[in-house]
Amino acid sequence: MITLAAASLAIASLAAPSFAQDTSEPVPGAESGAATGVLPPDIDTTGAITTTAPPSIADVIQAVKATDTSATQIGTISAIGEVKVVKISELAGSATELQTALTEHQDDLTKLRSAVEANPALMAELDKKQVEVPRIVATEIEADGALTVYVQ
């Protein structure tokens, strides 16, 4: 009798309907942020929803402070991933604080620009985007190999 009950339960579980997830509908809140001023969410590889804020002057200042490290990294890069160019004139934040950081890290900035000029793969990408090396104020290298170049 117990085996008959177990068999009935097993058959009932096999006959249960399965439901597929409808992926044709957009994720709630994922509408274009242009009209709302809100950034659309990104879904990372774990399925978590994240938003990517646009860079600010504070981000550039952090990148300027890490310019010595960036120069070393750029000197070792042989393959360039995505290159994003960000004009600092379009960012929110204190230009005075940025100028102070640039002044304090002038020697590192010179090293960074030299490293950029010495990297043929990076120079080819920057040429495509019409970026002049003397306009570079900082760079950030992402874990995926993408490079953000901040320019004046």
UniProtKB/TrEMBL annotation:
It comes from Mesorhizobium sp. WSM2240. This is Uncharacterized protein. The keyword Signal applies. Keywords: Signal. Residues 1-20 form the signal peptide. Residues 21-47 are annotated as: Disordered.
